[in-house]
Q: What sequence folds into this?
């Protein structure tokens, strides 16, 4: 789709928890402005793959490059790397003791050491982007799940990342709240954000993803454009997975 | 007739007035001792819990050992060790210091366990969210995890603090002139239990507001996620 060097380049990635090998040699390249969707049954290693990309999980072996930099290299400042990689979690993980603006500006102020006024300006911009500027003074427990997840997205966006990782961003939401989060993600895609999304929102994948990656048992079995993958999958396992998902 | 005798025995106003200055003296000493115990104990307990978060095995072994031993020992035993057993070993301290040290160490042990449990009770996702935005371990602890943990600790810590500060009365055993010591010595002079009543009143005046404060703090810090 484009020939620019990948923003995220994962090669031969392996991850074991004790004797259980969760990732068995995964290769994945994500190019600028690309939206890559990762699907697969639970336990297939999707989330672990995502969490290895900013080293929330420590890979057992393999290499991960972000914007050309080997983030596994000894001496690399992982905290600097993580500012370039936004992450959104299934359970939002907003800080309950801080208001919305406090959530969005904490890293700006304490990791980037920006003065309060500057951080709050950037925070308000990020909140405006997810349509929640009017909730800046609210506390997380006063928001709906969809609003909380949009605040979590704003918290990541405020750091101006070059790539965003979404770990099942809508799985914890009531169905009627999913749309608002997906709308924000669609807007981000249109404005050129590079995104890797682990999710079961197949309709969103069909309409928004550049590429869909199917994982099973710690490996990538198949990947390609969404129409190809959903309409004419090569692998029997993928066929089975798609039919099981589309049954409901 | 019976009631008059009861009043004379436990509420002899004249005796009470006579020894009031002594009890007031003990009252303020108790406050000093209690404050010194609370500050040293909580600070030390928090420091140990934070140290434990770093998860250095050898260090944590000693922290757990300290917490378990100090929580198991009756504070009076510790006071006697400090006051009677250490001087022959060349370490000499006043009854006040022995009592302060024994109670502060005891409170530190309990506070460490309370803070540690609270730090563990903060969901892992809070650490992950903080770390994923580039906050380092110490900053994630300081700005995200600790504020939430402290909030969880307030009710149990308040209760434990009240229990330990009441233990200042144990200082009477090593001649610390706090409330109970003053009331007890007033009794040996006057042979009138009214002095002990006065001591009890002094404890109520001191600790009922603290208990009320604890109650207020519990409702104030109860907040939903």
A:
């Amino acid at each position: 789709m484009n020939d620019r060097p990948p923003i995220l380049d994962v090669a031969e990635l392996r991850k074991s928890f004790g004797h259980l090998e969760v990732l068995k040699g995964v290769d994945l390249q994500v190019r600028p402005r690309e939206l890559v969707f990762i699907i697969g049954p639970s336990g297939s290693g999707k989330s672990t793959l995502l969490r290895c990309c900013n080293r929330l999980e420590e890979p057992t072996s393999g290499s991960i490059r972000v914007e050309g930099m080997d983030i596994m290299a000894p001496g690399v400042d992982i905290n600097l790397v993580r500012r370039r990689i936004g992450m959104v979690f299934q359970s939002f993980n907003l800080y309950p003791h801080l208001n919305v603006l406090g959530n969005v500006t904490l890293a700006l102020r304490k990791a980037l050491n920006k003065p309060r006024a500057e951080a709050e300006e950037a925070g308000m911009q990020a909140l405006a982007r997810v349509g929640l500027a009017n909730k800046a003074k609210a506390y997380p427990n006063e928001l709906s799940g969809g609003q909380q997840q949009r605040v979590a997205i704003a918290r990541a966006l405020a750091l101006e990342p070059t790539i965003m990782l979404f770990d099942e961003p809508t799985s914890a939401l009531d169905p009627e709240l999913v749309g608002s989060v997906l709308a924000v993600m669609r807007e981000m895609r249109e404005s050129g954000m590079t995104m890797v999304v682990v999710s079961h929102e197949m309709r969103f994948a069909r309409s928004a993803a550049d590429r869909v990656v199917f994982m099973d048992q710690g490996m990538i079995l198949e990947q390609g454009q969404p129409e190809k993958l959903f309409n004419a999958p090569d692998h029997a396992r993928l066929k089975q997975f798609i039919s099981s998902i589309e049954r409901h | 007739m019976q009631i008059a005798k009861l009043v004379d025995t436990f509420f002899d106003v004249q005796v009470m007035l006579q020894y009031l200055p002594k009890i007031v003296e003990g009252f303020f000493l108790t406050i000093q001792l209690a404050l010194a115990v609370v500050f040293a104990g909580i600070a030390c307990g928090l420091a140990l819990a934070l140290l434990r978060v770093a998860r250095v095995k050898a260090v944590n072994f000693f922290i757990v050992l300290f917490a378990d031993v100090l929580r198991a020992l009756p504070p009076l035993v510790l006071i006697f060790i400090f006051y009677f057993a250490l001087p022959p070993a060349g370490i000499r301290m006043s009854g006040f210091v022995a009592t302060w040290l024994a109670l502060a160490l005891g409170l530190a042990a309990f506070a460490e366990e309370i803070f540690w449990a609270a730090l563990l009770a903060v969901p892992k996702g809070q650490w992950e969210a903080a770390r994923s935005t580039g906050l380092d371990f110490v900053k994630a602890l300081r700005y995200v995890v600790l504020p939430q943990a402290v909030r969880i600790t307030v009710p149990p810590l308040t209760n434990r603090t009240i229990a330990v500060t009441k233990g200042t009365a144990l200082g009477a055993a090593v001649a610390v002139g706090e409330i109970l010591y003053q009331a007890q010595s007033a009794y040996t002079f006057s042979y009138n239990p009214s002095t002990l009543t006065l001591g009890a009143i002094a404890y109520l005046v001191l600790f009922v507001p603290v208990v009320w404060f604890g109650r207020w703090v519990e409702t104030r810090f109860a907040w939903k996620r």
Summary: The radius of gyration of chain B is 22 Å. The domain at 27-221 of chain B is CATH 1.10.3720.10 (MetI-like fold). Chain B touches chain A through 21 residues (CB under 8 Å). Chain B has nine helices and no strands.
